[in-house]
Amino acid sequence: MSAAPDLKPNDQPVLRAQPEAGIVRLTLNRPKAYNSLSVGMMTALQAELDAIKAARDSVKVVIIAASGPGFCAGHDLKEVRANPGRQQYEALFRQCSMLMQSVVALPQPVIAQVHGVASAAGCQLVASCDLAVAADTARFATPGVNIGLFCSTPMVALSRNVSRKHAMEMLLTGDLLPAARAAEIGLVNRVVPEAGLADAALALAIQIAAKSPLTVKIGKEAFYRQVDMPLAQAYDYASRVMTENMLARDAEEGIDAFIEKRDPKWEGR
Question: Where in the chain is the domain with CATH 1.10.12.10?
Answer without folding.
Answer: 213-259
